[in-house]
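REVIEWER CHECKLIST
Item 1: Sequence provided? yes
Item 2: Single chain? yes
Item 3: Sequence as submitted:
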Amino acid sequence: MLPLLLVRFSDHLGVLNVFRYITFRTGGALMTALFIAFVIGPAMIRRLRVSQGSGQPIRTDGPARHIIEKQGTPTMGGLLILISSIAATLLWADLTQAYVWVVLFVTISFGLLGFVDDYLKVTKRSPEGVSANTKLLIQVAVAVLASFAAMSLEEPSLAGTVAIPFLKTVLLHLGWGFLAFGALVIVGASNAVNLTDGLDGLAIVPVIIAALAFALIAYLVGNVKFADYLQLHYIAGTGELAVFLAALVGGGLGFLWYNAPPAMVFMGDTGSLSLGGALGGVAVATKHEIVLAIIGGLFVIEAVSVIVQVASFKLTGKRIFRMAPIHHHFEQLGWQESTIVIRFWIVSVVLALIGLSTLKLR
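Item 4: Structure as written out by the authors:
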């Protein structure tokens, strides 16, 4: 919004030219989202605590200590991230760029789905909210629409293709099959982040790390000179997604202030589904879907641990891990929560650096 309003006056006031630059607006979006989160955070958490009473229902099949230590903590803290990051995006991004609206569509849709899921859990006092089939159906529908929109915005030579990391010219042509692939990426990322959200601060910091990495990717892919230098596939308009991701980082940092152990609020499905969907949407828009599996490798590990656990139990009657997702396995081994969280953060940083290396190693 600000670029559209202020750049037109730059001929009379030269300093307003800074609003033309994505880098300046990226910083502005981050700080704005952080500020909004700090301002509305305390009142929102108080409101959630009062309205939810005994807080988020704790699963009885999870670690026993969670029933004691985390009982009464309110959920739906993802609203704090969504409100602050979406407001900052609308304020600082160039809203004439369609990719911004595609990713916002995914983020808001998944956020609303997560909100309904959280609301049902709180009101029914049960860990079960929206049925798994209904949730998956809605996610797939939204993801297919977003993938179709991304295909429509791309150059004909790139539409329906998947870029392969480390190979500068190789494109895997899927045609209309890309709709299924894009949906898999978006829905998979959304649910993987959801599975990771099990300990205080565990999910939000890897999301912030992944968002920072993809902010750089979006900026480079959307800049014709940098894309040409790094031999990336240039996609006009994706640079504005760096502004959105910066806003997500700012909102995430503001949420982390209240989610740091011991958490004052949980993000709930409102946050985890929308944040994962946002990362998946950006990956599809920038044609870095496979790189997301590297940068967001921690989320992949968490999701795979659940799949392996369920498959092993159904096929053999035996469990591979003491508990899934895998962060609960380490809890059962006696690791302290803070140890698990910080070590998983370190893994996220390493994976992000490996993912970013694909930009140059071609």
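Item 5: Key structural point noted by reviewer: The chain has a mean pLDDT of 91.
Item 6: Recommendation: ____
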